[in-house]
Design a protein that fits this description.
The chain is built from 15 helices and 6 strands. By secondary structure, it is an alpha/beta fold. It has a 6-stranded parallel beta sheet, sandwiched between helices.
Length: 324
């Protein structure tokens, strides 16, 4: 194993769509560099959601220190702001101990928040959210979308009328602050994170695993979903439902796969359709992730479907720091 020195990057970021091979690539890097892995994944934070999130195995988790996995109960939310706070603290701590932070995941909103900073928006207010949920129950989310269009047409224009999570947040921000969400986006005054500074100075790398052939990725998504079903994914969702305190509108239960399984068990469509619907939803997620990645010009692309993809990732990860 290589030892940390001036040629070791202060921070390595490894991103990619679902099923692109991020876990295998991260573990390969861990064989060559003294790293600790920081998960950049909004689903892996939840305890009891192991199969449907393709969480690293107990053996993989034990092979190298992992952070921000199994840190929340599915009843709790975990925001991008909380991720940035936690990740920045971990990056500093890991570097202080002479190791390299390796940020790995596919939640591109988290990466973007880490690199670009966050808007100075008001925090979530449970009371306001409860009122909005009650209004949505009475009038429907399209009606609240229309209300949003009246006070924040810029944000409303980019949201679907049924996008309950984002409509709720946009109206919550407006009702708390009196300012539209788009105002905060336009007047961003965020402090750059440690990872963003390292990336801009060449002391960090954003390695992006992206397929040349989408069919290759689609095939891996299908095989992985089949493996999840065989491993007892439905039993996992049954256990979550049996708790009695979870519901399908929670961020945890809106995760791809879990949403479809919950709806199937609610009888919204035949259970025989779960595989096709789950695979389709996962493909759509991968498409969105790739779109996010393409908005990050600083990334170094590695074709994840190339025979030597792992070797390319390692070569990039082991390159000396490029300080201007």
């Amino acid at each position: 194993m290589a030892h940390p020195d001036s040629a070791t990057p202060r921070c390595i970021c490894l991103a990619g769509p679902t099923a692109s091979g991020k876990t295998a690539a991260a573990l390969a890097i861990a064989q060559e560099l003294p790293v600790e892995i920081i998960s950049v994944d909004s689903a892996l934070v939840y305890r009891g959601m192991d199969i449907g999130t393709a969480k690293p195995s107990a053996q993989e988790l034990a092979s190298v220190p992992h952070h921000l996995i199994n840190i929340r109960d599915p009843l709790q939310a975990y925001s991008a702001a909380e991720f940035v706070r936690d990740a920045n603290a971990l990056i500093t701590d890991i570097r202080t101990r002479g190791k390299t932070p390796l940020l790995v995941g596919g939640t591109m909103l988290y990466f973007k928040a880490l690199f670009d900073g966050l808007d100075d928006m008001p925090p979530a207010d449970p009371a306001v959210r409860a009122v909005l949920e009650a209004e949505a129950l009475a009038k429907g989310w399209p009606a609240l979308h229309a209300e949003l269009a009246a006070v924040d047409p810029v944000t409303a224009a980019r949201l679907a009328p049924a996008d309950s999570q984002r409509i709720q947040r946009a109206l919550e921000v407006y009702r708390i602050s009196g300012q539209p969400l788009s105002h905060f986006h336009a007047t961003r005054n965020a402090t750059k994170s440690e990872a963003a500074h390292a990336l801009s100075t060449g002391a960090s790398d954003l390695i992006s695993l992206e397929p040349v052939d989408r069919i290759w990725l689609h095939d891996r998504i299908a095989k992985r979903f089949d493996a999840m079903l065989a491993a007892g994914f439905l039993d996992e969702v049954h256990a979550l439902r049996a708790r009695g305190d979870l519901h399908p509108d929670l961020p945890s239960m809106r995760c791809v796969g879990y949403r479809q399984a919950w709806e199937a068990l609610d009888g919204k469509f035949p259970l025989t359709e779960l595989r096709d619907r789950g695979i389709f939803a996962t493909r759509q997620l991968a498409k969105r992730q790739i779109t996010w990645l393409r908005s990050m010009p600083q990334r170094h692309i590695v074709a994840c479907d190339a025979p030597d993809a792992l070797q390319q990732v390692l070569q990039r990860a082991l390159q000396p720091v490029r300080v201007p």
